[in-house]
Design goal:
Blueprint: E1 9-13, E2 25-34, E3 43-48, H1 59-65, H2 69-79, E4 88-93, H3 95-112
Parallel strand pairs: 1-3
Antiparallel strand pairs: 2-3, 2-4
Length: 113
């Protein structure tokens, strides 16, 4: 589970997907966000198998090879709820931190459901 007991969001880089699609991915990092009310709303960052993006192993490499896509994603999440929403970025986490969040979320889900 993510912040506020919600499921963790996964941003998948690669070919366009339909919302809710199930695909194989590789985690490359995480986006640390804080909502205006102080709630943590981190996002896992992944690359889809079978896409050129799958060849990268970090958010730095993804940014360098794919037109600052991580930086654009940070900007999107900071602004998509409108001016004054108070969403702030707490930085980008490494792949191992994303894995830690994923496993922690899976454990929380298993224990609470």
């Amino acid at each position: 589970m993510g912040g506020e007991g919600e499921s963790v969001d996964v941003v998948v880089f690669g070919a366009q997907l339909k919302r809710g699609a199930v695909v194989q991915v590789k985690l490359v990092g995480m986006l640390r966000l804080k909502e205006g009310d102080g709630a943590i709303d981190d996002k896992l960052l992944a690359v889809a198998k079978g896409t050129p993006e799958y060849n990268v192993n970090s958010t730095d490499e993804l940014n360098a090879k794919f037109n600052n896509s991580v930086a654009a994603t940070v900007k999107f999440f900071r602004t998509y709820k409108g001016a004054g929403s108070g969403i702030t970025s707490r930085g980008i986490g490494e792949a191992y931190e994303a894995m830690r969040l994923l496993y922690s979320s899976l454990w929380d889900y298993k224990v609470n459901n």
